[in-house]
Amino acid sequence: ITLSWTESDPIPSIGYSITRQCHRLCEESFNDYDQKTSSSSPLVFTGINPGSYCEITSFTGTFGIEFIEFDSGNIITTLFAEPTSSPENIVFSSVEATSLIVSWDELPCSEQNGPITGYLLYYTHTTFSDTI
């Protein structure tokens, strides 16, 4: 994430402190924190997982004043990526002449990289003597 800003305050800033807290969309609580300071724009945060939800809080410092919050509650969602693995423990059950049920384990959150919106299943018709 690259954060850029321009100074609009008539009192010049002596620095900025930016805090980010993130979690993957499939997790409920923040578990990835980082804080950086800079005297000028831009500021870059790296190493954030795909499909993450982040809150950014910015603080500024001026001569004679401690750092004060000047911007909070900015929400950023990182880009999604393809899952890093495939479903495991695929099970075929209730196999009939014209139907069957297919089930599998959900991917671990750390491998989803964003919301899973669906799966594609392909099948090929075989003769009775063929095996799958």
Short overview:
This protein is mainly beta and 132 residues long. The protein has one helix at residues 109-112; strands spanning 2-3, 13-24, 32-38, 43-44, 52-62, 65-77, 91-93, 101-103.
Protein model, in words:
This protein is mainly β and 132 residues long. The chain has one helix spanning 109-112, and strands spanning 2-3, 13-24, 32-38, 43-44, 52-62, 65-77, 91-93, 101-103. The strands form 3 sheets. The protein has a 4-stranded antiparallel sheet, with no helix packed on it. The protein has a two-stranded antiparallel ribbon with strand order 1-4. Strand 7 and strand 8 (101-103) form a beta hairpin. The protein starts with a strand and ends in a 20-residue tail after the last helix. The model has no long low-confidence stretch (mean pLDDT 84).
Give me the number of helical elements. Answer: 1
Low-confidence stretches are none
- What structural class is derived from the secondary structure elements? mainly beta
**Major beta-sheet overview:** 4 strands, antiparallel
Shape: rod-shaped
Radius of gyration: 24 Å
Mean pLDDT, all residues? 84
Strand order of the largest sheet: 3-2-5-6
Question: What percentage of amino acids are in beta strands?
Answer: 35-45%
Calculate the terminal CA-CA distance, rounded to whole Å.
47 Å
Query: Could you state the order of secondary-structure elements as H and E?
Result: EEEEEEEEH
Number of strands: 8
| Assembly state (oligomeric) | single chain
The percent range for helix content is under 10%
